[in-house]
Amino acid sequence: MTILDESDQPIFDETGITGIADESDPATGPQRHRWVLKALSPLALGPNHEADLALKGRHLDQVEDAAGTLLTEMFPDTNAALLPDWERLLGLPDACAGEPATLAQRVAAVAAKWAERRQLSVPYLIDMAARLGFAVTISNRAARRYGQALLGTTYCGKGWANTITVHAPGVAVADRIYLECLFSRLRPAQVYLDFDYS
Description:
The protein is mostly helical. It has 3 domains: about 1-75, no CATH class; about 75-115, no CATH class; about 120-198, GMP Synthetase, Chain A, domain 3 (2-Layer Sandwich). The chain has 6 helices and 3 strands. The protein has helices spanning about 30-40, 50-75, 85-90, 105-115, 120-130, 175-185; strands spanning about 135-140, 165, 190-195. A 3-stranded mixed beta sheet has the order 1-2-3, with helices on one face. Helix 1 crosses helix 2 and helix 3 (about 85-90) crosses helix 4.
């Protein structure tokens, strides 16, 4: 774009051949920092320093663009370039879930792991199994205590005092390792696991 005078005629350079380019809108151009550096430089420097200003301006443009990219990379659900670092930080890929096939699945796994708040409740364990595609139910096996147990309930010895049974009917034999891995990782230290696939 050429700068025009009051009568809408182009203003030419010193030789009267080339119109002077309009650099009045630096905010959107690809060389916005070159324009700022040129505006801050003394007029006496002249055209000899144009290449230097262009180089420095290009570097400043790249730094600003990188800072803008960092704003999206700092959140787990919008990252791409820092995805390996997020996975390393969160211990992904999860050995229980296997290796995600696509980039979108990897980002979703990072976001889910970052938002995860561990709980020691049955609904939480059922929800975590559902995320891997398993429909399970969980029952507690308490040790029978004389004087407190109801007549007709199953007798469980002391070994069942801290045991939960995970009922997962219809789970294929090949997939059982993922389900057992998940519950082994999430279970409290004092809880024992029993799996029922029937």
